[in-house]
Design a protein that fits this description.
heterodimer, A: 563 residues, alpha/beta, six-stranded parallel sheet, 22 helices, B: 90 residues, alpha+beta, four-stranded antiparallel sheet, 2 helices, 4 strands, elongated
Chain lengths: 563, 90
């Protein structure tokens, strides 16, 4: 409600957050943001105190990814602001809508190397979609409205708003209410590509599709970001086209679709990579030919013509020259190409490859085989469970062996590959979806990178489940050292890790460690049945590798496999 | 260092008159692999905008820089003039 009483910049901030439906924010107070925290005291917005600003930024990312809403994080000036940077970089690289609010030293002190002063605006240039520094409290409302619009418009991303302390306490001339506004802010409409303005491209694409005898659909994270999962699935059911997905595209295709071949790329399935290498038409949907997907670029899909659907014109012809580009909203554009195809022979070939190269779960001895464990968790967990991961071997095993029926149910740091992502992202996901099970799959290296967030789990009694795949190594780096660096294991041994069960217990989190295959089923059941937070430490053999592996700068059909 | 593919291009950019806009343009230009070899900037007579002329050099596709600069929120318009400057043999 608009109030006649004087409104500070800080109070205005929370009203604008409420206008945009923000109920939860993640942050950490400090000197230069104290007036905002003082205004928070009177606000209905719920604040989650994290134990490190990086945790706050990843929780905002997890919150956004699990719901499609904007994630919001707060930090003070200087080190508080710099600690947000990794989370913002992660959000930029994976196109996640986040609004970060930082306190800044008062305007009179700015530029004087004041206590806890850093030029966060300058630092933000390379790791945000856009950023603002507020110079007048009467511009704050407009800037915050723009920040939300920019975060969500076109290709989504993080926006930073740096607010000097005196702006936070200054009184605004025109107080704003906390009620939703009817007039959405349109910033520049640059990404508003209309299908009707691209008839030549649609015509070319339809002709390519009609001519193709071996087409493959290459599904990226853009499908989930566009909210176009339904349109993608109806495209697939109309065309019956074989499909593959990127790491961030997992969940967009119904995982049980008979023509779906799984993830492609460096640790992709053999069937997915062979199909893409053989195809004569590749339809990229919200995907960007990332180096982890393509392997050696000029040998990627060497026989294919390419149709590229994207919202970002800068992705067209960036790494692969395409025959037809269709810009804009996938929800509108995908149905334009959803025509029945006569590709029976190709469908059969892909299905045969899928069967011939299906995952094998034999593993000698009693030691737990992480792929089999993750598969069992995937088959046991409730519908709509959110799985987050950290980065490394456990991440690739999760992507390979767990099935997700929506992109909002698999949150992983794709482009940036940020260790320390999983635990705080799970916290954000659990807060945004309190009724769904949330499982953070992590490794013993990654877990320690934001382990302080166990305290956030304790404080808010969040029932996050943590599956810690423990090989007492930086496993992925160790694997590469063994394969590509003559087994010279430089700085990858973590055999002096803490006792993770005791560590969890110190935060009043129930925990157990398992070491033997015959403990797996009961342990998974116990974890999922437990009402509160739970840490399941899973000891595995330190020599287990992720297969297949396409070595760097190698064609995707030349993958190394388990020998 | 110029190689056989190095080209010089002139970008004509209209941007909002924000104190931060030059930093953004230069950051994106550097990150995307272009060397700035000349720059002029003056305010437009009307509507709170800046006219910026940026001369850049690279062996990378100018179309890519064009699209990346065009994505900047503060940038209104970008056009490109290109001419081959370097045909030095390797």
């Amino acid at each position: 409600m608009a109030s006649d009483k004087a409104q500070t910049g800080g109070a205005l901030l929370f009203n604008v957050l409420q206008q945009h439906g923000v109920e939860h924010v993640f942050g950490y107070p400090g000197g230069a943001i104290m007036p905002i925290y003082d205004a928070l005291y009177d606000s209905d917005v719920k604040h989650f105190l994290c134990r490190h600003e990086q945790g706050a930024s990843f929780s905002a990312v997890g919150y956004a990814r699990a719901t499609g809403k904007v994630g919001v994080c707060l930090a003070t000036s200087g080190p508080g602001a710099t600690n947000l940077i990794t989370g913002l970089a992660d959000a930029l690289a994976d196109s996640i809508p986040v609004v970060a609010i930082t306190g800044q030293v008062p305007m009179v002190a700015m530029g004087s190397d004041a206590f806890q002063e850093i030029d966060i605006f300058g630092l933000s240039l390379a790791c945000t979609k856009h950023s603002f520094q507020v110079r007048d409290v009467n511009e704050l409302n407009d800037i915050l409205q723009q920040a939300f619009a920019i975060a969500l418009e076109g290709r989504q991303g993080p926006v930073l708003v740096d607010i000097p302390k005196d702006i936070q306490t200054a009184l605004v001339d025109n107080p704003v209410s906390n009620l939703p506004q009817s007039q959405p802010v349109l910033v520049n409409g640059k990404s508003d590509h209309q299908l009707k303005n691209q008839p030549a491209n649609v015509g070319t694409a339809l002709a390519l599709l009609n001519q193709a005898s071996k087409p493959v659909l290459y599904v990226g994270g853009g499908v989930g970001m566009a909210g176009a999962v339904d349109e993608l699935r109806s495209f697939i059911s109309n065309t019956n086209i074989p499909s593959v997905a990127t790491l961030k595209g997992l969940g967009a295709v119904e995982p049980t679709d008979e023509h779906y071949l799984g993830m492609l790329g460096m640790h992709g399935t053999k069937a997915a990579n062979l199909a893409v290498q053989e195809c004569d038409l590749l339809i990229a949907v919200g995907a960007r030919f990332d180096d982890r997907v393509t392997g050696k670029l000029n040998e990627f899909a060497p026989h294919a013509k390419v149709i590229h659907f994207d919202i970002d014109q800068a992705e067209i012809n960036k790494r692969r020259t395409v025959e037809a580009a269709i810009l804009g909203d996938l929800k509108v554009n995908l149905p334009a190409l959803a025509i029945p195809l006569s590709i029976d022979e190709w469908q059969e070939k892909c299905k045969k490859m899928k069967d011939d190269f299906a995952w094998q779960y034999d593993h000698p001895g009693d030691t737990i085989f992480a792929p089999a464990l993750l598969k069992e968790i995937s088959e046991t967990m409730p519908k709509n469970t959110v799985v987050t991961t950290d980065v490394g071997q456990h991440q690739m095993w999760s992507a390979q062996h767990m099935l997700f029926d929506h992109p909002t149910n698999f949150l992983t740091s794709g482009s940036m590959g940020t260790m320390g992502f999983g635990l705080p992202a799970a916290i954000g996901a659990q807060i945004s979806r309190p009724d769904d099970t949330v499982i953070a799959v992590t490794g013993d290296g990654s877990f320690m990178m934001n382990v302080q967030e166990l305290s956030t789990i304790k404080r808010f009694q969040l029932p996050v489940k943590i599956v810690l795949i423990d090989n007492s190594k930086l496993g992925m780096v160790r694997q590469w050292q063994d394969i590509f660096f003559d087994g010279r294991l430089s700085e990858t041994d973590l055999s002096d890790n803490p006792d993770f069960v005791m560590l969890a217990n110190a935060f009043e989190i129930k925990a157990q460690v398992i070491t033997d295959k015959n403990q797996v089923s009961a342990a998974i059941k116990e974890m999922l049945a437990h009402q509160g937070a739970y840490l399941l430490q899973v000891k595995i053999d330190a020599t287990d590798n992720v297969w297949p592996l396409v070595p760097p700068n190698t064609a995707n059909d030349k993958m190394m496999e388990n020998r | 260092m110029q190689n056989v593919n190095t080209q010089q291009h002139t970008l004509r950019i209209t941007a909002q008159d924000q104190p931060t806009v030059l930093e953004r343009l230069l950051q994106v230009t550097r990150y995307r692999g272009f060397l700035v070899t000349g720059m002029t900037m003056f305010p437009c007579a009307d509507d709170n905008a800046l006219d910026i002329e940026l001369t850049v050099q690279s062996d990378k596709s100018i179309e890519q820089l064009h699209h990346q600069l065009n994505k900047l929120i503060d940038v209104n318009n970008v056009t490109v003039d290109s001419n081959m400057i370097a045909q030095c043999s390797a």
